[in-house]
Amino acid sequence: MMRKNLEEVKVKRLIPRTLAIGLFTLVICLLAAETLIVKVQSTSLRKSPKFYAPGLLALGAGDRIEKISSQEGWIQVRTSRGVVGWVHSSAVQVQKFDLMAMDKGLKTQASASEVALAGKGFNKQVEESYRAKHGEVSFAWVDRMLLIKMPASRVEEFMRQGKLGEFRGAR
Amino acid sequence: MNKTKIIALILVVFFMMAFLTACAAVQQGADILTATGKISESDRKAIVQTSEALRSTFADITEEEEYYIGRGVAALILSRYQVYDDKALTDYVNTVGQAVVYSSSRPEIYAGYHFLVLDTEEVNALSAPGGLIFISKGLLRRCRNEEMLACILAHEVGHVCAKHGLQSIQKSRLLDAFRLIGQEAGRRYGPEELTQLTNIFEGALGDVADTLILRGYDRKFESEADELAVKFAAATGYAPQGLVEFLRTMVGDSRAASGKGWFKTHPSPEQRIERVNAPAASLGAHLVEEPIRTKRFQQTLAGLK
Given CB atoms, is B41 within the 8 Å cutoff of chain A? Predict the structure, then answer.
């Protein structure tokens, strides 16, 4: 009889503990598994949180990465292949999941992230159609303009020489 | 507590955990199922669709859509203005611009920021959505140092960061586009939808280009861009007083005020100085014009024809 009571007490003590550990683990898992999606055409996974830090690998629109931590606009992430580095927060969006929308049923419209992932909306096909209609509007210089790219290393040197950013006050 | 209660509790907790975990993993799961061929692409979309909000405002325009709108607006700007094609000057403007972009609130944008000089004596600077920024030769000529140039570029970057251009698209036009885009399943459109969408696209480009070139932004957008300019310039290390000094050179200048461009489409220089003077003095308290920056500015601009 005594032994049975003791067992019951043990079980009673165990339940809240198990519950607490279970919920704690769940919260940690949900927080840790925050998935980010690259929303810009291309960016670099950088070695440290600076634009002119060495690039570890190239990332493209739609790539998924896992958030590890964040600091001053930069997010430390891990790729699906396990490479860890930094991306700027403006290059990614959080994969949203709205629990409150679960009961709203099927929609007839697409959300922004769906449109982005599908490459729909105002896209290349729409531009081509516009250009076919408006031969007088030239995109030649727009395309040339998009080719003007200042390498981050050159901007870094320019900032260093001009005592800008972190080089302010440096000789 | 008896055994039944314990079992019931464990079951409740188990289902709660399963539900929450499943919710968080729905999209990933749906993707995996699609990838392995277990469900079709349309099934995946239907699953994901139930969990996300509809598009209703300019803020729902995707990065890629903004890029295509920006390309169109830039093409319209370039159909009115010639390009001042000088590689050294273009590279210099792009480097100053990029340094400011690094300290902005939106340094990463779909296809990056790009700057071009327009071959006109008009005092003007324009920014198309998606980070395509133009500065006129006339405006460059009026800058005395790199600080002034950086502040003007920072003002334009501010318009892009705050998506002011996209906000000039008529709301009804945007809603028509969202409705049409939402109905189409595939990446490519059928002829009828494409015609309709092209007309909306054309209208949207017109809304933005007319605002930039002819009407000008609302004063509140200009004030916001000035505030951002002071913030971004100071964060880069430029003395934000450069904006105030530039504006001072324009006070009482009838040619700039009566012509097209930056001052016709903006609030008066006096009003702008009044608003930005205090924040510039505060944020720029420890920032001074560096002689080395002014020197390289003068060297690059020396050959301006």
Answer: no
